[in-house]
Amino acid sequence: MDQYTLNLLVVGATFALYIGIAIWARAGSTAEFYAAGRGVHPVLNGMATGADWMSAASFISMAGLIAFGGYDSSAYLMGWTGGYVLLAMLLAPYLRKFGKFTVPEFIGDRFYSKAARLVAVICLIIASITYVIGQMTGVGVAFSRFLEVSSSTGLYIGAAIVFAYAVLGGMKGITYTQVAQYVVLIFAYTIPAIFISLQLTGNPIPPLGLFADAKSTGEPLLVTLEGLVTDLGFKSYLTQEDTTLNIFLFTVALMIGTAGLPHVIVRFFTVPRVADARSSAGWALVFIALLYLVAPAVGAMARVNLITTFYPNGTGADALALADIETKSELDWVRNWQKTGLLTVEDKNGDGLIQYVGDKDANELTVNNDIIVLANPEIANLPGWVIALVAAGGLAAALSTAAGLLMAISSAVSHDLIKGQLNPNISEKGELLAARISMGIAIAVATYLGLNPPGFAAQTVALAFGIAAASIFPALMMGIFSKRVNDKGAIAGMLAGLIVTTVYIFLHKGWFFVPDTNSFTDADPLLLSIKSTSFGAVGALINFVVAYVVSSVTEEPPVEVQELVESIRVPKGAGVATGH
Question: In this structure, what CATH number is given to the domain that contains residue 289?
Answer without folding.
Answer: 1.20.1730.10
